[in-house]
C-alpha cells in the first residue's frame, strides 16, 4: 500500500475516534430530554386529575350547604307557624278572660257550680246562661234542671281539658257531646272548640269540618265569625290560599269592627307578604 494512502486511512480512523463520543453524548442528551418531558406530562395529568376531584368535592359541598339551608328554612317556617297558632289561641282566651262576667239571678236549681272564672266568661260571651225567667219556669214546672239537661257540666269539663292542654281528652268529650245532648244550646260552641282542638293539633282538615258545622248549622250563633276566621286559618295551613283569602274576606265584610275582623286583616296582610 502506498505511504500516502496509509496516511489518509489513519487520519479517518482518528477523526472517527474523536467524533464517536460526541455522537453518543448527543443521543444521551436527547433521551434525557424526552424522559424529562414525559415526566412533566405525567405530573401534569396527575395534577389535572387532582384539581378535577377538588372541584367535584367543592360542588358537592355547595350542594349540601344549599340543602342544609333549605331544611333550616323549612324548620323555621314550621316553628313560626306553631308560634303563631299558640299565640293566636292564647290571645283569644285572654280576650275571653278580660270580658266582664254576666250577672245571674240566684237559683235554687241544683246544678253543677262553675269553679273556673274563664269558663264563666266564655259562657257569658256565648250568651248561653239561662235568664231569670227561664230559671223560674224550670223551677215552677218541676222540669229537669237546665244545667243538667243542656250538658253544662260536660261542656265545662271539656273546656277544662282543652285549656289544660289535654287536647285528645277534650276532643273525646266534645265528640261525644252531640249524641248525649242533641238539643243542647252549647252545640255551636262544642263544634267550634272541636275545631280549635284539631287546629292546635295541626289536623287542619278535621278543623275545617268542625268550623263548617258551626257556620252551616248554627248561622245565628255568635261563634260564626270566629269559626269563619279559623276556617280561613286552617285552609291556609292546608295550602289552599285562595279559599283562605275568601274566608278571611268574608269575616271582614260580614263582621266588621270585631276582633275576628282585625285578626283576619292581619292574616291577609301576612299571606300577601309571603306571596311576594
TrEMBL record:
GO terms for cellular component: outer membrane-bounded periplasmic space. The keyword Heme does not apply. Pfam families: TolA_bind_tri (PF16331), YfiO (PF13525). Residues 1-26 form the signal peptide. Keywords: Cell cycle, Cell division, Periplasm, Signal. It is found in: Periplasm. Its main location: periplasm. GO terms for biological process: FtsZ-dependent cytokinesis; protein trimerization. PROSITE patterns: TPR. Mediates coordination of peptidoglycan synthesis and outer membrane constriction during cell division. NCBIfam families: tol_pal_ybgF. This is Cell division coordinator CpoB. It comes from Methylophaga nitratireducenticrescens.
Amino acid at each position: 500500500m502506498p505511504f500516502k494512502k496509509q496516511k489518509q486511512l489513519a487520519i479517518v480512523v482518528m477523526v472517527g475516534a474523536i467524533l464517536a463520543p460526541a455522537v453518543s453524548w448527543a443521543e444521551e442528551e436527547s433521551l434525557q430530554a424526552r424522559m424529562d418531558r414525559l415526566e412533566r406530562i405525567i405530573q401534569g395529568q396527575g395534577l389535572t386529575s387532582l384539581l378535577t376531584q377538588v372541584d367535584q368535592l367543592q360542588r358537592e359541598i355547595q350542594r349540601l350547604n344549599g340543602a342544609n339551608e333549605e331544611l333550616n328554612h323549612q324548620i323555621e317556617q314550621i316553628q313560626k307557624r306553631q308560634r303563631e297558632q299558640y299565640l293566636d289561641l292564647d290571645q283569644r282566651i285572654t280576650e275571653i278572660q278580660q270580658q266582664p262576667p254576666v250577672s245571674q239571678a240566684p237559683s235554687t236549681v241544683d246544678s253543677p257550680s262553675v269553679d273556673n272564672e274563664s269558663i264563666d266568661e266564655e259562657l257569658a260571651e256565648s250568651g248561653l246562661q239561662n235568664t231569670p225567667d227561664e230559671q223560674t219556669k224550670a223551677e215552677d214546672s218541676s222540669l229537669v234542671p237546665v244545667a243538667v239537661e243542656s250538658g253544662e257540666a260536660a261542656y265545662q269539663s271539656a273546656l277544662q281539658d282543652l285549656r289544660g292542654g289535654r287536647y285528645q281528652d277534650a276532643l273525646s268529650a266534645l265528640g261525644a257531646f252531640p249524641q248525649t245532648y242533641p238539643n243542647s244550646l252549647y252545640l255551636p260552641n262544642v263544634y267550634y272548640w272541636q275545631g280549635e282542638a284539631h287546629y292546635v293539633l295541626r289536623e287542619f282538615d278535621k278543623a275545617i269540618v268542625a268550623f263548617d258545622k258551626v257556620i252551616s248549622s248554627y248561622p245565628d250563633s255568635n261563634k260564626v265569625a270566629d269559626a269563619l276566621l279559623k276556617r280561613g286559618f286552617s285552609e291556609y295551613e292546608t295550602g289552599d290560599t285562595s279559599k283562605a283569602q275568601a274566608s278571611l274576606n268574608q269575616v271582614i265584610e260580614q263582621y266588621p269592627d270585631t276582633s275576628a275582623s282585625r285578626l283576619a286583616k292581619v292574616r291577609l296582610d301576612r299571606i300577601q307578604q309571603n306571596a311576594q
